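Hey, can you fold this one?
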Amino acid sequence: MTRNTTMTVRLKGSLSEFVSANVGEHGSYDNVSEYVRDLIRRDMERADAEAFRKLQAELKQAFSAPESSYQPLTAADIIARNKV
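Sure. Predicted structure:
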């Protein structure tokens, strides 16, 4: 289900001037809403990329561990460990 949210943001000074320079006839965006949506999408992409980078680092570390550090576990062992 798609939900629309209306937000009010007040900007002053250099922030307001910066947004104004990026919106309208000479800017990259037609309106402020389009600009804010793009900023949010970019931030979501950044957060996703950071989470993926962390996962890659964890997997790299796990797969580079020596074979002797691995311990055999049953499904019951894993379930019990995760209940804590």
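DSSP finds three helices and no strands in the chain. Let me know if you want another pass with a different chain boundary.
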